[in-house]
Amino acid sequence: MMVNSSQIDAILTAIENPIRRRIIKRLSQEPSYPLEIAKELGIGQQLVAAHLAMMERHGIVSSSLEDSPYGPKRRLYFLNKSACVTISFGPHLYNEQVFAFESLPNNLSKDYDALLRRISESKQNESLESLYKLITEIDEKISRIEDERTALLYIRNLAMKRVADILNTQARSTVEKRILYFLLDERCEDIEKISTDLNLREAVIRETLKKLKNEIPFNL
Q1: What is the mean pLDDT of the chain?
Q2: pTM: predicted TM-score of the whole model, two decimal places
Q3: Which long-range contacts (CB under 8 A, 24 or more apart) does 150-154 make?
């Protein structure tokens, strides 16, 4: 599931800092206390607390007060989001995507159903070995998918360079080029959104889209 722009900003703000990334990595394993995190990462407790507070304000982590065997209650922190962030850019490429995966997408293939069944089966014998094998297999699949994605982005980049070469040989206005690139990059034909994102008047966009109708297979 794609997240909205404000959520993207919050996630990118959280992960741009290397200390926060280390804290997130630690909390991905299990919930923890600021003092415990500080000791394990070799960072001052006040600095850890400040980063945790910032991430809690942005909804990346949450916390609860827990009883302590040594005195006052302690605040336990845990991750509150699951997300996949990808940003790809180059001379003829810009793409940013943030997906949340708190729930399964619809219409999964049978391959994924089989993976889910293996998790259910592991509950019957409490075996770490079967889960280790499953996680290793999943990581290998992800690696292959990432390799394929990298290859597709490379080829797409070449295709966009070819588009740029063609446009540079034609008598195109700057407005036409901007709208063409928007259509290719965003796959969005909503005139209001194009107007907002490109800071162009809707009347100009409508007129330009009429000119492009015979070149680009989009639907108004």
Answers
A1: 87
A2: 0.76
A3: 153/88, 153/93, 153/95
